[in-house]
């Protein structure tokens, strides 16, 4: 449980959520992450260490650069929601909401989908929909390319699918 809480706290930061997205498609160094996010190298290094210490990213490779060693980090998407308390998940949800607003301000005209729903459905329908949502998320993460790769477009997918208590 402590590891799950550490993971949630590490990812409950909008900048770190952006880093996880960047590191989905390809391993990147702190310098590359800093350039892409327009932040200081020291800041990128710090946040990458927090994510690494929480086991959210791995060191994919190391390379010698100017007498030092640059680590290349990678995020492997696909974890299920951790079994932890609602209070511990709240920081993650707040970070997702803040990051969604930032991304929303960068949207372009064209195709998209906006859904907000609080519905009552059968357990069978819920299981089917949840399976499709997870499959879609995995598909999009698997297809992710390095930022600014020719022929690609930046997109957003923010998903929060959960069962609610009856009132």
From TrEMBL:
Pfam families: HTH_20. GO terms for molecular function: DNA binding; DNA-binding transcription factor activity. SMART domains: HTH_ARSR. Residues 1-90 form the HTH arsR-type domain. Keywords: DNA-binding. Gene3D superfamilies: Winged helix-like DNA-binding domain superfamily/Winged helix DNA-binding domain. PROSITE patterns: HTH_ARSR_2. InterPro entries: ArsR-like_HTH, HTH_ArsR_DNA-bd_dom, WH-like_DNA-bd_sf, WH_DNA-bd_sf. PANTHER family: TRANSCRIPTIONAL REGULATORY PROTEIN. This is DNA-binding transcriptional ArsR family regulator. It comes from Nocardioides thalensis. The lineage of its organism: Bacteria, Bacillati, Actinomycetota, Actinomycetes, Propionibacteriales.
